[in-house]
Amino acid sequence: MIFLTLLAACACLVEVSGLHATTEATDTTGVAVTEDAFYISRERMLADPIRYLQANGWEWSDRRCSYSMWVAKRYTYEEMLCACYLWCQRQKTQEELDFEYASRVSQLKRYMPRLLRIGWPYIPVFAILASVGICGNITIIVVIARFMGKNKSATNALIANMAVSDLFTCVFCMPIQGELVENGL
Q1: pLDDT tens-digit map of 2-59
Q2: pLDDT tens-digit profile of 100-148?
Q3: What pTM does this model have?
Q4: TM spans, by residue (predicted)?
Q5: For residue 166, what are the CA distances in angstroms to 123, 128, 137, 146?
Q6: Using CA atoms, how far apart are residues 77 and 85, in angstroms rounded to an integer?
Q7: Is the distance from CB of 88 to CB of 52 less than 8 angstroms?
């Protein structure tokens, strides 16, 4: 009996509150949908990031762009990468590639004199160290392989292995380290 009373009370509550399901179609064309201006501008920015950068006077990978988006705290990391660095989740257009190239060239022209002024002493030092290291290690490898080939000892193997690893260091690591030091990283 209590169960039937509760069921009747729930049915009355649903009917009174208007939560019942209907099969009638409702017309919603008279309802105006307004979007936030931020979302509209964000969609425009993501659709054409070049116009966004040019409107603010920024170049490709300009730090002011990413800083302003970070301060706003309304953009995701992917949106910042798309708008400021043109790393969108789509194929780049030719216009975006041209804009990125032109921005890189202008940044290179603007920053290269400063980088050379700061890093010029490191260029000859790394070149001399790398060339001396390459010549010395090749000489050690040739001497051990040619003249001490009959005398295979653990010491000769150790020295040859160290010379090979040092040769790889001079060939691969020193140019990268020179570039990093030159760029101030």
Answers
A1: 544 545 555 554 454 444 445 555 555 555 555 677 788 888 888 888 888 888 888 8
A2: 888 888 888 888 787 777 777 777 888 899 999 999 999 999 998 888 7
A3: 0.45
A4: 122-145, 157-177
A5: 20, 15, 7, 19
A6: 11
A7: no
